[in-house]
Amino acid sequence: MTDVTTVRLPLFPLNSVLFPGLVLPLNVFEERYRAMMRDLLKASPDDPSGPDTDPTEPSTSDEPRQFVVVAIRDGHEVAPSASGMPDAITTKEAGSGPAAGFGDDPITSFHAVGCVADAATIRERADGSYEVLATGTRRVKLHSVDASGPYLTAEVEELPEEDGEEAGALAEGVLRAFRSYQKRLAGARERSLTTGAELPDEPSVVSYLVAAAAVLDVPTKQHLLQAEDVASRLREELTLLRAETAIIRHLPSLPATDLTRQSTSLN
Fold it and tell me: Is CB count within 10 Å lower at the N or C end of the chain?
């Protein structure tokens, strides 16, 4: 029997799916996630900030500052807390603590597979909230969730990233379908989505880029994140892109998210 190697990392639930290689901007204002950012900053021995550093400047570090982003299956991304909240609901009325909004057994509120994020840049605002720029690095499976500290932590196992059969050929087909999808989507919005940047050709990178950029709901994106291997993910994407392109062709006024932009996630 093979031993499973796990690590414990801070857990950041969102109403969205993060993929390896993708950039995630975060607006951190809840106290539980502020505490997480403070601990990540403390754990960065190479952080160049010091007593003479401008506090408005972002903190960067060569050391990984990692936490797990997991998509919420059943619960609320933002829960009222004592400070920093943009609404008038009190902590007493809505509950507080690291598991607020996620029920008595938080792990049941989350999808089983998430993505480790590396917070390369963290900037504290004057009001104590944070602007964070993180990048997805690798997929992990959640084994347990601990709510005993100031924020949720999870015991996670890294998932292997295998190409599977015909990944290279499938990636080429997905790129062709994605370009057609982009053109149709641009036509539906009467604007160009062309950035001039070359699309990658590495199968795993293609699979994650397309999964992140396509206008799909969270369950579908989560299904792609959890794919057994790269080839399986690419096959699913090829089917989805062809179907979505056909829909857009018949509904030219279909509203869609701008693929060239990614909004900041609220915690």
Answer: N
pTM of the model as a whole? 0.79
The DSSP secondary-structure symbol of 175 reads H
Dihedral angle sign, alpha carbons of residues 235, 19, 211, 12: positive
List, in order, residues 6 or more apart from 166 with CB less than 8 Å away.
231
25 residue type, one letter: P
Task: Give tens-digit pLDDT for 176-201.
Answer: 999 989 888 776 554 444 444 567 77
Beta bridge mates, 124: 130
Contacts 24+ apart (CB under 8 A), 155-161: 155/6, 155/7, 155/8, 156/6, 156/7, 156/8, 156/9, 156/68, 156/114, 156/116, 157/4, 157/5, 157/6, 158/5, 158/7, 158/116, 159/113, 161/20, 161/204, 161/229, 161/230
Q: What is the DSSP string of 10-22?
A: EEEEESS---TT-
Long-range CB contact pairs, 83-87, < 8 A, 24+: 83/31, 83/128, 84/29, 84/30, 84/31, 84/34, 84/127, 84/128, 84/129, 85/29, 85/30, 86/29
CA 19 to CA 258: how far, in whole Å?
18
